[in-house]
């Protein structure tokens, strides 16, 4: 089977299959958001939300909850502690995803630089209730946050 990728427009991708015809899909624009603890890379935020959370070494997110949003986290790289309602869970590659229900207080504390995949219901900033501030990561010998 032969497959040809064609980019008919900036945000469109058409896939032509020799045996099955064509399929056109929308290419999402990535959104980058700087955070005290690192960076969020938004893959999509429509009916559902997908993000990469890039957490600096020894950084902490705010302790917070969402009134409506349910989130599932999966560690792609590094080691990070996820604290949910005071209970610690280790996030590491090849560990099971962890799901946080709406209303559950939680935060991340990285042990090493980490990349976490977040899949959730739609994100609205007004839905976030922050109980503490985020903390930046530790600087290395060159004065840079890793």
Can you describe this structure?
With 146 residues, the chain is mainly beta. Helices cover 0% and strands 54% of the residues. The protein is built from no helices and 14 strands. It has strands spanning 3-9, 12-17, 21-26, 31-35, 38-45, 48-55, 64-66, 71-77, 80-84, 87-91, 98-100, 106-110, 114-121, 128-130. The strands form four sheets. It has a six-stranded antiparallel β-sheet with strand order 4-5-6-13-8-11, with no helix packed on it. Strands 1-2-3 form a three-stranded antiparallel β-sheet, with no helix packed on it. A hairpin with a 2-residue loop joins strand 1 (3-9) and strand 2 (12-17).
Shape estimate: globular
CATH superfamily of one domain: Jelly Rolls
In whole angstroms, how far apart are the ends?
44 Å
What's the arrangement of strands in the largest beta sheet?
A: 4-5-6-13-8-11
Q: Strand portion, in percent?
A: over 45%
Which structural category do the helix and sheet elements fall into?
A: mainly beta
Helix content: under 10%
Q: In CATH, what is the class of one domain?
A: Mainly Beta
Quick one: biggest sheet? 6 strands, antiparallel
The radius of gyration computed from the alpha-carbon positions, rounded to a whole number of angstroms, is 18 Å
């Amino acid at each position: 089977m032969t497959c040809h990728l064609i980019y008919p427009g900036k945000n469109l991708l058409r896939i032509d299959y020799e045996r099955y015809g064509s399929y056109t899909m929308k290419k999402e624009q990535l959104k980058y958001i700087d955070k005290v603890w690192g960076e969020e890379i938004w893959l999509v935020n429509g009916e559902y939300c997908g993000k990469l959370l890039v957490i600096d070494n020894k950084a902490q997110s705010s302790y917070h909850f969402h009134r409506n949003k349910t989130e599932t986290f999966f560690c792609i790289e590094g080691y990070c502690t996820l604290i949910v309602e005071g209970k610690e869970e280790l996030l590491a590659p090849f560990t099971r995803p962890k799901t946080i229900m709406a209303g559950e207080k939680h935060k991340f504390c990285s042990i090493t630089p980490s990349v976490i995949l977040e899949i959730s219901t739609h994100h609205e900033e007004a839905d976030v209730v922050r109980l503490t501030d985020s903390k930046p990561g530790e600087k290395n010998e060159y004065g840079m946050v890793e």
